[in-house]
Amino acid sequence: MFSSLSLLLLLHICSLTVSSLALPFEQRGFWDFAMDGNGGDLTSVMMRDEEGSGMEEELPPDVPLCPFGCHCQLHVVQCSDLSLTVVPKEIPKDTKLLDLQNNRITELKENDFKGLANLYALSLVNNKISKVHPKAFTPLLHLKKLYFSRNLLTVVPRNLPPSLVELRIHENRIKTVPEGTFSRLGSMNCIEMGGNPIQNSGFEPGAFKGLKLNYLRISEAKLTGIPKDLPDSLHELHLDSNQIQAIELEDLKRYKHLHRLGLGHNHIRMIENGSLSYVQNLRELHLDNNRLTRVPKGLPEMKYLQVVYLHSNNISQVDVNDFCPRGFGIKRSFYNGISLYGNPVYYWEVQPATFRCVTDRLAIQFGNYKK
Ligand SMILES: *[C@@H]1O[C@H](CO)[C@@H](O)[C@H](O)[C@H]1NC(C)=O
Ligand SMILES: *[C@@H]1O[C@H](CO)[C@@H](O)[C@H](O)[C@H]1NC(C)=O
Protein backbone atom coordinates (compact mmCIF):
# COMPACT_ATOMS: atom_id res chain seq x y z
CA MET A 1 0.00 0.00 0.00
CA PHE A 2 2.93 2.33 0.59
CA SER A 3 3.55 2.80 -3.10
CA SER A 4 0.03 3.71 -4.06
CA LEU A 5 -0.11 6.19 -1.21
CA SER A 6 3.13 7.81 -2.25
CA LEU A 7 1.88 8.13 -5.83
CA LEU A 8 -1.26 9.84 -4.65
CA LEU A 9 0.86 12.17 -2.60
CA LEU A 10 3.09 12.92 -5.55
CA LEU A 11 0.15 13.62 -7.83
CA HIS A 12 -1.28 15.90 -5.23
CA ILE A 13 1.92 17.84 -4.65
CA CYS A 14 2.45 18.24 -8.36
CA SER A 15 -0.93 19.81 -8.66
CA LEU A 16 0.21 22.51 -6.26
CA THR A 17 3.71 23.31 -7.33
CA VAL A 18 6.06 22.34 -10.06
CA SER A 19 9.18 22.69 -7.96
CA SER A 20 8.09 19.65 -6.00
CA LEU A 21 8.92 17.64 -9.07
CA ALA A 22 12.51 18.49 -8.29
CA LEU A 23 12.34 16.76 -4.94
CA PRO A 24 14.56 13.74 -4.66
CA PHE A 25 12.50 10.88 -5.88
CA GLU A 26 13.18 7.59 -4.30
CA GLN A 27 12.80 4.62 -6.54
CA ARG A 28 10.92 2.23 -4.39
CA GLY A 29 9.33 -1.01 -4.86
CA PHE A 30 8.48 -1.26 -8.51
CA TRP A 31 11.32 -3.52 -9.58
CA ASP A 32 11.14 -5.30 -6.27
CA PHE A 33 7.46 -5.92 -6.83
CA ALA A 34 7.98 -7.13 -10.34
CA MET A 35 10.72 -9.54 -9.33
CA ASP A 36 9.06 -10.64 -6.16
CA GLY A 37 7.66 -14.00 -7.23
CA ASN A 38 4.59 -14.21 -5.05
CA GLY A 39 3.60 -10.55 -5.57
CA GLY A 40 1.28 -8.55 -3.38
CA ASP A 41 -2.18 -7.29 -4.16
CA LEU A 42 -0.72 -4.21 -5.71
CA THR A 43 1.52 -6.16 -8.08
CA SER A 44 -1.37 -8.17 -9.41
CA VAL A 45 -3.41 -5.01 -9.87
CA MET A 46 -0.56 -3.46 -11.80
CA MET A 47 -0.06 -6.54 -13.93
CA ARG A 48 -3.72 -6.50 -14.82
CA ASP A 49 -3.42 -2.80 -15.67
CA GLU A 50 -0.62 -3.44 -18.04
CA GLU A 51 -2.43 -6.04 -20.08
CA GLY A 52 -3.57 -4.50 -23.30
CA SER A 53 -2.06 -1.14 -22.45
CA GLY A 54 -0.12 -1.01 -25.67
CA MET A 55 3.15 -2.49 -24.46
CA GLU A 56 5.52 -3.65 -27.15
CA GLU A 57 4.58 -7.21 -28.09
CA GLU A 58 8.06 -8.70 -28.05
CA LEU A 59 8.73 -7.76 -24.44
CA PRO A 60 7.92 -10.37 -21.83
CA PRO A 61 4.89 -9.05 -19.90
CA ASP A 62 6.72 -8.82 -16.60
CA VAL A 63 9.51 -6.50 -17.78
CA PRO A 64 8.21 -2.98 -17.53
CA LEU A 65 9.31 -0.44 -20.07
CA CYS A 66 11.34 2.43 -18.73
CA PRO A 67 13.65 4.78 -20.65
CA PHE A 68 17.31 4.30 -19.80
CA GLY A 69 18.35 6.25 -16.71
CA CYS A 70 14.81 7.22 -15.77
CA HIS A 71 12.83 6.07 -12.78
CA CYS A 72 9.46 4.57 -13.53
CA GLN A 73 7.06 3.80 -10.79
CA LEU A 74 3.39 3.18 -11.23
CA HIS A 75 2.41 5.86 -13.72
CA VAL A 76 5.21 8.30 -12.94
CA VAL A 77 8.23 8.53 -15.22
CA GLN A 78 11.00 10.63 -13.87
CA CYS A 79 13.83 11.64 -16.17
CA SER A 80 15.04 14.85 -14.59
CA ASP A 81 18.70 15.92 -14.30
CA LEU A 82 20.03 13.44 -16.86
CA SER A 83 21.58 15.87 -19.38
CA LEU A 84 19.15 14.54 -21.98
CA THR A 85 19.24 16.41 -25.29
CA VAL A 86 16.15 14.75 -26.72
CA VAL A 87 12.91 13.39 -25.28
CA PRO A 88 13.63 9.72 -24.49
CA LYS A 89 12.01 6.93 -26.46
CA GLU A 90 10.00 4.06 -24.97
CA ILE A 91 8.03 6.04 -22.46
CA PRO A 92 5.32 3.67 -21.18
CA LYS A 93 1.94 4.38 -22.76
CA ASP A 94 0.15 4.51 -19.43
CA THR A 95 2.38 7.29 -18.05
CA LYS A 96 0.46 9.99 -16.23
CA LEU A 97 3.32 12.16 -15.03
CA LEU A 98 6.38 12.72 -17.16
CA ASP A 99 9.15 14.74 -15.60
CA LEU A 100 11.84 15.92 -18.00
CA GLN A 101 12.99 18.95 -16.10
CA ASN A 102 16.61 20.10 -15.76
CA ASN A 103 17.88 18.57 -18.97
CA ARG A 104 19.26 20.01 -22.20
CA ILE A 105 16.44 19.22 -24.58
CA THR A 106 16.45 21.75 -27.44
CA GLU A 107 13.43 20.75 -29.46
CA LEU A 108 10.12 18.91 -29.27
CA LYS A 109 9.64 16.78 -32.36
CA GLU A 110 6.51 15.49 -34.01
CA ASN A 111 6.60 12.01 -32.49
CA ASP A 112 8.19 12.73 -29.14
CA PHE A 113 4.98 12.11 -27.21
CA LYS A 114 3.41 9.58 -29.53
CA GLY A 115 0.93 7.30 -27.81
CA LEU A 116 0.94 9.16 -24.49
CA ALA A 117 -2.81 9.64 -24.48
CA ASN A 118 -2.95 9.14 -20.70
CA LEU A 119 -0.47 11.82 -19.81
CA TYR A 120 -1.84 14.23 -17.21
CA ALA A 121 1.17 16.38 -16.35
CA LEU A 122 4.31 17.13 -18.33
CA SER A 123 7.25 19.06 -16.93
CA LEU A 124 9.82 20.45 -19.31
CA VAL A 125 11.07 23.09 -16.90
CA ASN A 126 14.66 24.25 -17.30
CA ASN A 127 15.66 22.86 -20.67
CA LYS A 128 16.84 24.65 -23.81
CA ILE A 129 13.75 24.25 -25.92
CA SER A 130 13.35 26.86 -28.64
CA LYS A 131 11.43 24.81 -31.20
CA VAL A 132 8.17 22.90 -30.91
CA HIS A 133 6.77 20.92 -33.81
CA PRO A 134 3.18 22.04 -34.52
CA LYS A 135 1.99 18.46 -33.97
CA ALA A 136 4.17 17.61 -30.98
CA PHE A 137 1.27 17.86 -28.53
CA THR A 138 -1.35 16.19 -30.73
CA PRO A 139 -1.17 12.76 -28.98
CA LEU A 140 -1.66 14.29 -25.52
CA LEU A 141 -5.42 13.99 -25.40
CA HIS A 142 -5.67 14.26 -21.63
CA LEU A 143 -2.85 16.60 -20.71
CA LYS A 144 -3.98 19.01 -18.04
CA LYS A 145 -0.76 20.56 -16.80
CA LEU A 146 2.11 21.73 -18.93
CA TYR A 147 5.15 23.19 -17.21
CA PHE A 148 7.35 24.88 -19.74
CA SER A 149 9.13 27.51 -17.65
CA ARG A 150 12.80 28.36 -18.07
CA ASN A 151 13.30 27.49 -21.71
CA LEU A 152 14.17 29.47 -24.83
CA LEU A 153 10.76 29.85 -26.46
CA THR A 154 10.18 33.13 -28.31
CA VAL A 155 6.51 32.46 -28.88
CA VAL A 156 3.80 30.50 -27.04
CA PRO A 157 3.62 27.17 -28.91
CA ARG A 158 0.61 26.64 -31.14
CA ASN A 159 -1.76 23.69 -30.88
CA LEU A 160 -1.62 23.21 -27.15
CA PRO A 161 -3.80 20.24 -26.07
CA PRO A 162 -7.48 21.27 -25.75
CA SER A 163 -7.64 19.45 -22.39
CA LEU A 164 -5.07 21.81 -20.87
CA VAL A 165 -5.99 23.47 -17.56
CA GLU A 166 -2.71 25.00 -16.46
CA LEU A 167 0.19 26.40 -18.45
CA ARG A 168 3.39 27.67 -16.90
CA ILE A 169 5.68 29.27 -19.39
CA HIS A 170 7.53 31.61 -17.10
CA GLU A 171 11.06 32.84 -17.94
CA ASN A 172 11.30 32.16 -21.63
CA ARG A 173 12.00 34.72 -24.34
CA ILE A 174 8.46 35.26 -25.45
CA LYS A 175 7.83 38.56 -27.19
CA THR A 176 4.63 37.79 -29.04
CA VAL A 177 1.37 36.01 -28.41
CA PRO A 178 -0.27 35.71 -31.82
CA GLU A 179 -4.00 35.84 -32.40
CA GLY A 180 -5.66 32.48 -31.80
CA THR A 181 -2.80 31.07 -29.70
CA PHE A 182 -5.25 29.88 -27.08
CA SER A 183 -8.26 29.15 -29.25
CA ARG A 184 -9.92 25.78 -28.55
CA LEU A 185 -8.53 25.82 -24.99
CA GLY A 186 -11.88 26.03 -23.25
CA SER A 187 -10.72 24.26 -20.07
CA MET A 188 -7.74 26.48 -19.41
CA ASN A 189 -7.85 28.03 -15.98
CA CYS A 190 -4.41 29.32 -15.15
CA ILE A 191 -1.50 30.79 -17.09
CA GLU A 192 1.79 31.85 -15.59
CA MET A 193 3.84 33.69 -18.19
CA GLY A 194 5.91 36.16 -16.18
CA GLY A 195 9.59 36.75 -16.77
CA ASN A 196 9.23 37.11 -20.53
CA PRO A 197 10.37 40.22 -22.41
CA ILE A 198 6.88 40.94 -23.71
CA GLN A 199 5.52 44.45 -24.29
CA ASN A 200 1.87 45.44 -24.61
CA SER A 201 2.17 45.39 -28.38
CA GLY A 202 3.33 41.76 -28.20
CA PHE A 203 -0.22 40.64 -27.47
CA GLU A 204 -1.88 40.62 -30.86
CA PRO A 205 -5.56 41.52 -30.85
CA GLY A 206 -7.49 38.35 -30.09
CA ALA A 207 -4.48 36.66 -28.49
CA PHE A 208 -6.59 35.50 -25.54
CA LYS A 209 -9.80 34.97 -27.46
CA GLY A 210 -11.87 32.05 -26.22
CA LEU A 211 -10.13 31.72 -22.86
CA LYS A 212 -12.05 31.64 -19.59
CA LEU A 213 -9.09 32.07 -17.29
CA ASN A 214 -9.22 32.53 -13.56
CA TYR A 215 -5.57 33.28 -13.01
CA LEU A 216 -3.05 35.12 -15.12
CA ARG A 217 0.40 36.29 -14.18
CA ILE A 218 2.51 38.46 -16.48
CA SER A 219 4.89 39.86 -13.90
CA GLU A 220 8.50 40.81 -14.60
CA ALA A 221 7.79 41.64 -18.21
CA LYS A 222 7.94 44.88 -20.19
CA LEU A 223 4.37 46.08 -19.98
CA THR A 224 3.86 49.86 -19.91
CA GLY A 225 0.11 49.68 -19.36
CA ILE A 226 -2.60 47.25 -18.28
CA PRO A 227 -3.32 45.03 -21.29
CA LYS A 228 -6.83 45.68 -22.52
CA ASP A 229 -7.62 42.41 -24.17
CA LEU A 230 -7.19 39.84 -21.41
CA PRO A 231 -10.00 37.39 -20.56
CA ASP A 232 -12.83 39.13 -18.73
CA SER A 233 -13.32 36.06 -16.50
CA LEU A 234 -10.13 36.74 -14.52
CA HIS A 235 -10.26 36.48 -10.74
CA GLU A 236 -6.57 37.06 -10.28
CA LEU A 237 -4.28 39.24 -12.34
CA HIS A 238 -0.65 39.75 -11.44
CA LEU A 239 1.21 42.44 -13.34
CA ASP A 240 3.87 43.24 -10.76
CA SER A 241 7.38 44.37 -11.73
CA ASN A 242 6.55 45.90 -15.08
CA GLN A 243 6.84 49.50 -16.26
CA ILE A 244 3.22 50.53 -15.98
CA GLN A 245 2.97 54.32 -15.65
CA ALA A 246 -0.69 54.95 -14.99
CA ILE A 247 -4.12 53.40 -14.61
CA GLU A 248 -6.51 55.15 -16.92
CA LEU A 249 -10.26 55.33 -16.57
CA GLU A 250 -11.18 52.39 -18.79
CA ASP A 251 -8.16 50.18 -18.14
CA LEU A 252 -9.97 47.92 -15.68
CA LYS A 253 -13.39 48.12 -17.26
CA ARG A 254 -13.27 44.57 -18.60
CA TYR A 255 -12.13 42.89 -15.41
CA LYS A 256 -15.26 43.03 -13.27
CA HIS A 257 -14.62 39.68 -11.60
CA LEU A 258 -11.18 40.45 -10.24
CA HIS A 259 -10.56 39.45 -6.63
CA ARG A 260 -6.84 40.10 -6.55
CA LEU A 261 -4.91 42.64 -8.56
CA GLY A 262 -1.14 42.87 -8.33
CA LEU A 263 0.48 46.06 -9.62
CA GLY A 264 3.39 46.40 -7.20
CA HIS A 265 6.85 47.45 -8.41
CA ASN A 266 5.70 49.48 -11.37
CA HIS A 267 6.05 53.19 -12.19
CA ILE A 268 2.49 54.21 -11.47
CA ARG A 269 2.11 57.92 -10.70
CA MET A 270 -1.50 58.36 -11.57
CA ILE A 271 -4.67 56.35 -11.03
CA GLU A 272 -7.49 58.12 -12.77
CA ASN A 273 -10.52 58.92 -10.61
CA GLY A 274 -13.21 56.36 -11.22
CA SER A 275 -10.96 53.67 -12.68
CA LEU A 276 -11.30 51.47 -9.57
CA SER A 277 -15.09 51.66 -9.73
CA TYR A 278 -15.01 48.90 -12.35
CA VAL A 279 -13.45 46.36 -10.04
CA GLN A 280 -16.03 46.28 -7.27
CA ASN A 281 -15.29 42.67 -6.34
CA LEU A 282 -11.68 43.28 -5.46
CA ARG A 283 -10.46 41.78 -2.16
CA GLU A 284 -6.81 42.57 -2.49
CA LEU A 285 -4.98 45.40 -4.25
CA HIS A 286 -1.20 45.65 -4.44
CA LEU A 287 0.11 49.08 -5.41
CA ASP A 288 3.30 49.08 -3.35
CA ASN A 289 6.59 50.32 -4.79
CA ASN A 290 5.13 52.80 -7.23
CA ARG A 291 5.20 56.59 -7.47
CA LEU A 292 1.79 57.49 -6.16
CA THR A 293 1.53 60.80 -4.34
CA ARG A 294 -2.01 60.21 -3.06
CA VAL A 295 -4.12 57.29 -1.87
CA PRO A 296 -6.13 56.34 -4.99
CA LYS A 297 -9.73 57.52 -5.14
CA GLY A 298 -12.56 55.06 -4.80
CA LEU A 299 -11.34 52.75 -2.02
CA PRO A 300 -14.24 53.51 0.40
CA GLU A 301 -16.75 52.37 -2.21
CA MET A 302 -15.05 49.01 -2.76
CA LYS A 303 -17.24 46.92 -0.49
CA TYR A 304 -15.09 43.80 -0.36
CA LEU A 305 -11.61 45.28 -0.37
CA GLN A 306 -9.73 43.98 2.65
CA VAL A 307 -6.07 44.32 1.81
CA VAL A 308 -4.42 47.29 0.17
CA TYR A 309 -0.66 47.67 -0.15
CA LEU A 310 0.52 51.22 -0.67
CA HIS A 311 3.95 51.04 0.93
CA SER A 312 7.03 52.51 -0.75
CA ASN A 313 5.28 55.19 -2.74
CA ASN A 314 5.51 58.97 -2.53
CA ILE A 315 2.29 59.55 -0.59
CA SER A 316 2.69 62.67 1.54
CA GLN A 317 -0.86 63.06 2.77
CA VAL A 318 -3.57 60.67 3.95
CA ASP A 319 -7.07 62.09 4.32
CA VAL A 320 -9.66 60.98 6.83
CA ASN A 321 -11.95 59.67 4.07
CA ASP A 322 -9.37 58.00 1.87
CA PHE A 323 -10.18 54.46 3.02
CA CYS A 324 -13.57 54.34 4.73
CA PRO A 325 -17.03 55.51 3.73
CA ARG A 326 -18.31 58.73 5.21
CA GLY A 327 -21.06 58.36 7.77
CA PHE A 328 -22.51 55.21 9.21
CA GLY A 329 -24.89 52.69 7.76
CA ILE A 330 -22.81 52.10 4.66
CA LYS A 331 -21.99 48.41 4.59
CA ARG A 332 -18.42 47.55 3.90
CA SER A 333 -16.03 44.73 4.84
CA PHE A 334 -13.41 45.70 7.36
CA TYR A 335 -9.88 45.97 6.12
CA ASN A 336 -7.45 43.52 7.61
CA GLY A 337 -4.33 44.87 5.98
CA ILE A 338 -3.28 48.36 4.93
CA SER A 339 0.39 49.10 4.39
CA LEU A 340 1.62 52.68 4.22
CA TYR A 341 5.21 52.50 5.37
CA GLY A 342 7.92 53.88 3.13
CA ASN A 343 5.90 57.00 2.30
CA PRO A 344 6.70 60.61 3.24
CA VAL A 345 3.80 60.82 5.68
CA TYR A 346 4.02 60.75 9.45
CA TYR A 347 1.55 58.56 11.23
CA TRP A 348 0.89 61.19 13.89
CA GLU A 349 -0.35 63.54 11.17
CA VAL A 350 -3.03 61.06 10.11
CA GLN A 351 -6.32 61.23 11.98
CA PRO A 352 -7.09 57.98 13.81
CA ALA A 353 -10.62 58.05 12.35
CA THR A 354 -9.07 57.45 8.95
CA PHE A 355 -8.93 53.78 9.93
CA ARG A 356 -12.40 53.46 11.43
CA CYS A 357 -13.22 50.56 9.13
CA VAL A 358 -10.11 48.49 9.89
CA THR A 359 -10.30 45.36 12.06
CA ASP A 360 -7.63 46.55 14.48
CA ARG A 361 -4.50 48.65 14.76
CA LEU A 362 -2.23 45.77 13.93
CA ALA A 363 -3.77 45.65 10.49
CA ILE A 364 -2.18 48.99 9.65
CA GLN A 365 1.50 48.96 8.80
CA PHE A 366 2.84 52.45 9.05
CA GLY A 367 6.42 52.49 10.16
CA ASN A 368 8.35 55.67 10.74
CA TYR A 369 9.10 57.61 7.65
CA LYS A 370 12.77 58.55 7.44
CA LYS A 371 13.99 60.97 4.89
C1 LIG B 1 -10.06 63.31 -8.42
O1 LIG B 1 -10.93 63.53 -7.36
C2 LIG B 1 -10.42 64.42 -6.37
C3 LIG B 1 -11.45 64.57 -5.29
O2 LIG B 1 -12.19 63.42 -5.11
C4 LIG B 1 -10.11 65.76 -6.97
O3 LIG B 1 -9.52 66.60 -5.99
C5 LIG B 1 -9.17 65.61 -8.14
O4 LIG B 1 -8.97 66.84 -8.76
C6 LIG B 1 -9.74 64.61 -9.11
N1 LIG B 1 -8.77 64.41 -10.16
C7 LIG B 1 -9.09 64.35 -11.42
C8 LIG B 1 -7.95 64.13 -12.36
O5 LIG B 1 -10.23 64.47 -11.83
C1 LIG C 1 7.40 62.98 -4.62
O1 LIG C 1 6.37 63.93 -4.74
C2 LIG C 1 6.77 65.27 -4.70
C3 LIG C 1 5.54 66.13 -4.79
O2 LIG C 1 4.62 65.79 -3.82
C4 LIG C 1 7.74 65.55 -5.84
O3 LIG C 1 8.23 66.89 -5.74
C5 LIG C 1 8.89 64.56 -5.79
O4 LIG C 1 9.72 64.75 -6.92
C6 LIG C 1 8.36 63.15 -5.76
N1 LIG C 1 9.46 62.23 -5.59
C7 LIG C 1 9.63 61.19 -6.39
C8 LIG C 1 10.79 60.31 -6.04
O5 LIG C 1 8.90 60.93 -7.33
From TrEMBL:
Name of one Pfam family that matches: LRR_8
Keywords: Disulfide bond, Extracellular matrix, Glycoprotein, Leucine-rich repeat, Proteoglycan, Repeat, Secreted, Signal
Residues annotated as domain LRRNT: 65-97
Residue intervals passing through the bilayer: none
SMART domains the record matches: LRR_BAC, LRR_TYP, LRRNT
Family: Belongs to the small leucine-rich proteoglycan (SLRP) family. SLRP class I subfamily.
Record function comment: May be involved in collagen fiber assembly.
Protein name: Biglycan
